[in-house]
Here is the input.
Amino acid sequence: MTHIVVMGVTGAGKSTVAQAIAERIGAPFVDADDLHPPANRRKLGAGEPLTDLDREPWLEAVRTRMAEQSRFTSGSGRDPAPETTAGPGLVVACSALRRAYRDILRGVDRPVFFVELRGDRKLLAARLAARGGHFASPQILDSQLATVEPLAPDEHGITCPVSGTVEQVADTVVAALRPDRRR
Here is the structure.
């Protein structure tokens, strides 16, 4: 089964949407924020944007977790061939802002379907102002908006507006994953 990566800038609702999708399809959920090394968490908490060098080991950790899920669900303890991969993929909440970052995540043995959550700055800033308890500072929003590269037409995935409800976005994603709806 396909891995699903719910991507977007801070405040887009990645974790909430990814959890809803995971519950709907019966797949495990991973929040990539939990895989950040302490140095990244400190930078983000201070409102400092991460560099590509900061992101690389984090993205590799996310990819490793996706590969581990494939080995776990195959029952073989080794990487199965894509055509023999069975069991649920992971649903991952991960910013995956640039195509190069998504390319790292695609380096697993199953297809990866990206769900880009997109919204305007005003809505995202309002969400961040209302959010509490997250390690990342709302100050990183502008740098992430400047960094994000939307999904390209040749990338496997869809774009969903964050103005809809979590249920609407999850329904849209589940419908897009049906074999008869894939592009």
The helical segments are 14-25, 38-45, 52-74, 99-105, 121-130, 141-147, 166-177. The chain has a mean pLDDT of 86. Residues 11 and 131 are 8 Å apart (CA to CA). The first helix runs from residue 14 to 25.
